[in-house]
Amino acid sequence: VYALNKLKYAKISGKENGNIKKGVIFATYSSLIGECRGARAKYRSRLKQLIQWFGVDYDGVIILDECHRAKNLVPTTGAKPTKTGRMVLELQKALPNARVVYASATGATEPRNMAYMTRLGLWGQGQAFPEFINFINAVERRGVGAMEIVAMDMKQRGLYLARQLSFRGVSFTVQEVPLSDEFVK
């Protein structure tokens, strides 16, 4: 098990990084978008470094935990896409055989924030919506009900799983606590 941010900007399987050929690499979104400005670095970006290590034929698993961090790939008018969103999309494009898991408690709070979830098969070649923009226009025009239908469809196809904690056996009391003058300030 290796942390990407602890590795040198060199070939992951190379001598500088301990000849890592197999294993699990953990990367924060901050490290995924990391770039090196040093003249001696073989790889300028962590993303390119990872893609090289995986290899174009990689068919293993990529788990994007807290994937909502990649939202705003298709922002509202006037804003720019986030670097995190762009890098997550680029990672998926570079590794077409990889199996991707999107894990988040708030992954689809707004349909627009799903743009990086390209592996769901909701848009693209052979789908009802040729491009993400077609999907987003249809869902936003129809409102919350449309998003509920999308969620039901994904659940039925095994693409979506939602868990809730039980509150069985839980009790609580409401207590009013007066605020001190210091706290009010």
UniProtKB/TrEMBL annotation:
InterPro entries: P-loop_NTPase, SNO, SNO_AAA. It holds the Pfam family AAA_34. It comes from the Eukaryota. GO terms for molecular function: chromatin DNA binding; histone binding. GO terms for cellular component: nucleus. GO terms for biological process: regulation of DNA-templated transcription. Residues 1-184 form the Strawberry notch AAA domain. This is Strawberry notch AAA domain-containing protein. It comes from Ancylostoma duodenale. The lineage of its organism: Eukaryota, Metazoa, Ecdysozoa, Nematoda, Chromadorea.
